[in-house]
């Protein structure tokens, strides 16, 4: 098991609770607003939360009465926190997870930075996203705050990647996506609103 799987398994029990406290709660609120604005959730949508953790965003999306909602995470301890029977849980890798149906809305919040490369993820996301669907990605910005975040994870032996804006746009273009909008809800984070090209 890799260091980040150990880390997230250990964090699972307290993950949601800690996001409601102090400075993190403040950041979460800003990020949440930007994520929901970019994702444009709607009633009856089919949606998937890739790297869902303990379900912070999965639970939020459930409020829109989706016709299908799936939470995917590599950490069993994390997906085990998705208790609502209407949420389908998948302990799987976001680079390879596959379904027979595609999704109107694909969300990946705070998970891409743990991948060595975003290429396999984008290939898979393309298969998951419906032709007229929207994908939203929340990820740390490359910059001083991103490096502080990187240091934080480095301190418990979890490596993360920081992607530059140019690199993200190039990769999205390469895999047939178009970046429709980018926002920075906090000095640490980007929220990308992405469509099929
Ligand atoms: C920082 S947490 C974010 C969780 C959740 N999206 C949130 O906003 O609360 C990152 C999550 O991504 C998951 N993750 C990282 N790499 C993954 C991969 N390759 N496949 C599936 N899950 C992954 C981790 O297990 C962890 O639960």
Question: What keywords describe this structure?
Answer:
single chain; about 200 residues; Rossmann fold; 8 helices; about 40% helix; binds S-adenosylmethionine
Question: Helix and strand layout, with pairings?
Answer:
Layout: H1 3-11, H2 15-19, H3 22-39, E1 46-50, H4 56-62, E2 68-73, H5 76-79, E3 88-91, E4 103-109, H6 119-128, E5 129-140, H7 144-154, H8 165-174, E6 177-186, E7 189-196
Bound molecules: S-adenosylmethionine.
The site of S-adenosylmethionine has 18 residues, from helix 4.
**What sort of overall outline do the alpha carbons produce when their principal axes are compared?**
globular
Q: Structural class of the helix and strand makeup?
A: alpha/beta
User: Strands across the major sheet, in which order?
Assistant: 3-2-1-4-5-7-6
Mean pLDDT: 93
Bound molecules: S-adenosylmethionine
Question: Which percent range fits the helix content?
Answer: 25-40%
Major sheet description: 7 strands, mixed
CATH homologous superfamily grouping: Vaccinia Virus protein VP39
| Total beta-strand segments | 7
How many structural domains can be distinguished in the coordinates?
1
For the termini, the CA-CA separation is 37 Å
Task: Kindly report the oligomeric state of this protein.
Answer: single chain
Count of individual helical segments: 8
Q: What is the CATH topology descriptor?
A: Rossmann fold
Uncertain parts: none
CATH class membership: Alpha Beta
């Amino acid at each position: 098991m890799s260091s980040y799987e150990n880390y997230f398994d250990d964090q699972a029990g307290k993950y949601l609770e800690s996001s409601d406290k102090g400075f993190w709660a403040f950041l979460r609120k800003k990020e949440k607003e930007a994520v929901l604005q970019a994702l444009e959730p709607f009633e009856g949508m089919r949606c998937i939360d890739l790297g869902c953790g303990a379900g912070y965003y999965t639970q939020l999306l459930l409020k829109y009465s989706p016709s299908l909602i799936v939470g995917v995470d590599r950490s069993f301890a994390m997906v085990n926190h998705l208790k609502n029977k209407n949420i389908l849980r998948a302990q799987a890798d976001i680079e390879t997870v596959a379904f027979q149906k595609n999704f109107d809305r694909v969300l990946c919040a705070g998970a891409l930075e743990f991948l060595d490369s975003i290429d396999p993820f984008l290939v898979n996301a393309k298969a998951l996203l419906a032709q007229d669907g929207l994908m939203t990605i929340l990820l740390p910005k490359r910059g001083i705050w991103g490096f502080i975040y990187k240091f934080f994870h480095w301190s418990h032996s979890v490596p993360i990647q920081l992607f530059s804006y140019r690199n993200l746009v190039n990769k999205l273009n390469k895999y047939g996506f178009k970046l429709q909008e980018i926002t920075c809800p906090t000095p640490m984070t980007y929220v990308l609103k992405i469509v099929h090209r």
